[in-house]
Specification:
homodimer; alpha+beta; Alpha-Beta Plaits; four-stranded antiparallel beta sheet; 5 helices; 28% strand; DNA-binding; transcription regulation (chains A, B); transcription (chains A, B); WH_DNA-bd_sf (chains A, B); AsnC-type_HTH_dom (chains A, B); sequence-specific DNA binding (chains A, B)
Chain lengths: 159, 159
DNA sequence: TCCCTAGCGAAACAAACTTGCATTTGGGAG
DNA sequence: CTCCCAAATGCAAGTTTGTTTCGCTAGGGA
């Protein structure tokens, strides 16, 4: 639960820039980089975590190293866009582990999915489960990633 | 530089499952969860970082909290697919901070981009810079995200 | 059988995080 | 203009966590 409109100053932004690159950086080093004491840095981080500016702290795993070398994009178009069916789709996609990311979009498609699988057989099985067994998917277009050129959740920061 | 073929056992996978959800979890707690001592956990984490299984440790920032509330997908189709021009495109996309993710794909498009911007004006300016000023973009299709249903870099783990 | 490597746990150690407290700073209200 | 309050800081403990050391225990070859 984000608390309130958090207003970030240049210290906060500088701290975020460091943390979204490497959140194991000691507060002491962050402090030196932004000209603040370690406790001050720590209090700001804590506040940003509580207000939801920092949504999480995670290790990034190389998919290929854990047997999921294939990344696939799917544009999904639904038959019906009734709110109830949209929500059902959101829930199903969210609950599927292979669906790494899911966005509800405007334009010629309704959803865009980023999927991680071990091989094309696994993808084929997944399409059956997600799209053919659903009675609400009109069509879907598949793009297989040949190169994950740039991957991350890094956000451009002002300043 | 990934060292060598790292073979992960069930301990490693259990540790990864925890870290990709919250990498601030103390090693002591991880140890309790997987039935290992804290030093053993720490050695395994270190090894996976050195071999590239763990690609990074990052804080996830809420884009809306830092003035980048709009997420946009772009399918980019190039005029020419000469290797040299592909590489040039990869470099330009990678070097653009607003391009959060960039994938080189098969199918009806050559690239898929995920872009983060403050408003549609910023997106319009970015399209000019990335697509119109480039002489190698045949066309591009834009999808604006209305809902970031599921966002992350979480990978499904075997076991 | 012997040795050798890899991995473990317990404990000692070092580093980082966290908290309490006094101080400073920047605004309003009187 | 002065006073007072709220917010944020730095410093210095105190606590937790991370890291290293060490001796031990398998598990494989030679």
């Amino acid at each position: 639960m984000p608390a309130l409109p958090p207003s970030l100053d240049s210290f906060d932004l500088a701290i975020l820039a460091i943390l979204q690159r490497d959140n194991t950086t000691p507060q002491r080093l962050i402090g030196e980089a932004v000209n603040l004491s370690a406790p001050a840095v720590q209090r700001r981080i804590k506040r940003m975590e509580q207000t939801g500016v920092i949504a999480g702290n995670v290790a990034v795993i190389e998919p290929a190293a854990v047997g999921q070398p294939i990344t696939i994009f799917v544009e999904v178009e639904l038959e019906s866009e009734r709110a109830e069916l949209i929500d059902a789709a959101k829930r199903q996609f969210s609950g599927t582990p292979e669906v790494q990311q899911c966005y509800y979009v405007t334009g010629e498609a309704d959803f865009i999915l980023i999927i991680t699988v071990a091989d094309m057989g696994a993808y084929e099985a997944l399409t059956r489960k997600l799209f053919f067994d659903s009675n609400n998917v009109r069509k879907f277009r598949t793009f297989v990633a040949m190169d994950r050129v740039k991957v991350g959740l890094t956000v451009p920061l002002p300043g």
